[in-house]
Every structure is written in C-alpha cells, then in structure tokens.
C-alpha cells in the first residue's frame, strides 16, 4: 500500500503549472481546490507532497493527530503547511471566462463574480439536488449542487457514486456508440453541461476512475479488469 501511495503521489502535479494549460477554458479547473471544487481562496500548500487547497478547506485535516493529504492520502506535518504565495500571484495574473456569462474575470475575483452572476445562479438552481450515497440522519443541505451521486447518461440509472458509474457504464454500455455528456464533469463549477464526450468510457477511466475520498482503497485488480473490459470493447468495435 505504501508503494501504491507513492506512485499515486508522484503521478499528481505538485502545484499548478507556471502558465495557463489548455487555454482560458481550463484555467478555472487548473486553479480549483480539490476539496470545495471552487477557485482557490487563500491557498495553502502541504510541504511534503506539494498539493494545494483553500486554507479553510484544509483546516479540518489539521485538527487530527496524524493528518493525511486529502488528495494523495500521504501523511504530512501540519507545521509544514505554508501559504501558497506563488498560486495567489497566478490567481491575480490570470483571467478566465465566467462559466455563466462568459465575461473574463481575474481568477482571484471569480468567486465574488460567480456569487452575483445571474446566469451562474440559474445554473446552480437547475443542478440536481444533493442525494446522500447511503441513508443518513444528518440534515441534507439544500443550497449546494449534487456532486455526490450521478445519473447514467445512457440509461438514466440514478444514485450512482463515481466508482459505481464507471463500473455501470463499462459493464452495461461499453458498446454504446452515442456521444453523451459526462454527469461528473457537468456537475463541477467549470463543467459544460452541453459538451458531449466522443469516447465517454475512455474519458471515465482516465478522468474519474478514482474518487478522492476512497481511492486508496480502490483495488488495482479491479482497475485492471475495467481497463481490460474497455480494451475488449474497443477491439470488438
């Protein structure tokens, strides 16, 4: 497991790239916190692995005796978490189009703009409501979009978490040639609800095979089986 964690950690970039990657449309995703999925606010970086988060988002991890990075699950020293000054400078330097009105806004001001953008608020209001993966007695938030469970874009099967969606599509829709919208990406702040993936299964396996809160327990054999199923599908087509 230790070796697997090391491989996972090395596969992730230690910090956002020095320049825009993927053009303006990819900037908001590139500079978004992996926890809240919004543009960084007062970003901090973990010294050992280099992963960056909003300062407020990382706070709960700093309250436990042996904290783990929320992204790679590697242990870290809470005393070696520093303000990500380089990221703050980039947030002030780069502009990206608002996902609602398409106006170019400095990343450092994107949160404030989005909170007042009529089109963004309309998109948020039209998002599916949050549905817990398992029954809970805790109150369910009513003012956040559902980024926990998803609907299969092929058959409409509901309440699938990220890994369940991957398995479901590989097992039931690997021969389906239809172009579909990724429900995971479209639920994200930077997601385009009208963009249809040319190869949805390949997209799922490359982008969404891990769920950040559970991926260290994801079976390597299970991943290999999914990759084999996809390879078989491609050979059959």
From TrEMBL:
KW Chaperone (keyword) present: no
Gene3D superfamilies per the UniProt record, alphabetical: Zinc/RING finger domain, C3HC4 (zinc finger)
Alphabetical list of CDD domains matching this protein: RING-HC_RNF166
Record field: catalytic activity: S-ubiquitinyl-[E2 ubiquitin-conjugating enzyme]-L-cysteine + [acceptor protein]-L-lysine = [E2 ubiquitin-conjugating enzyme]-L-cysteine + N(6)-ubiquitinyl-[acceptor protein]-L-lysine
Pathway(s) served: Protein modification; protein ubiquitination
Limits of the C2HC RNF-type domain: 98-117
Listed name of the protein: E3 ubiquitin-protein ligase RNF166
Lineage start: Eukaryota, Metazoa, Chordata, Craniata, Vertebrata
Gene that this sequence comes from: RNF166
């Amino acid at each position: 497991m230790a070796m697997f964690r090391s491989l996972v950690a090395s596969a992730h970039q230690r910090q956002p790239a020095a320049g825009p990657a993927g053009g303006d449309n990819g900037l908001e995703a590139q500079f978004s916190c992996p926890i809240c999925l919004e543009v960084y606010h007062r970003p901090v970086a973990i010294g050992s692995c280099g992963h960056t988060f909003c300062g407020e988002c990382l706070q709960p991890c700093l309250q436990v005796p042996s904290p783990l990075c929320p992204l790679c699950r590697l242990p870290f020293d809470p005393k070696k978490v520093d303000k990500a000054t380089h990221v703050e400078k980039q947030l002030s330097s780069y502009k990206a189009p608002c996902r609602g009105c398409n106006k170019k806004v400095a990343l450092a001001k994107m949160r404030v703009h989005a909170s007042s953008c009529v089109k963004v608020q309309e998109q948020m209001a039209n998002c599916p409501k949050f549905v817990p993966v398992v029954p809970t007695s805790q109150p369910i938030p009513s003012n956040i979009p559902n980024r926990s469970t998803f609907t299969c874009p092929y058959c409409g099967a509901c309440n699938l978490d990220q890994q369940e969606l991957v398995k479901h599509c590989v097992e039931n829709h690997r021969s389906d040639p239809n172009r579909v919208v990724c429900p995971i990406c479209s639920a994200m702040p930077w997601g385009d609800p009208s963009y249809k993936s040319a190869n949805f299964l390949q997209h799922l396996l490359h982008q969404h095979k891990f769920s950040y809160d559970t991926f260290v327990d994801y079976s390597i054999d299970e991943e290999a089986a999914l990759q084999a199923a996809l390879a078989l599908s491609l050979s059959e087509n």
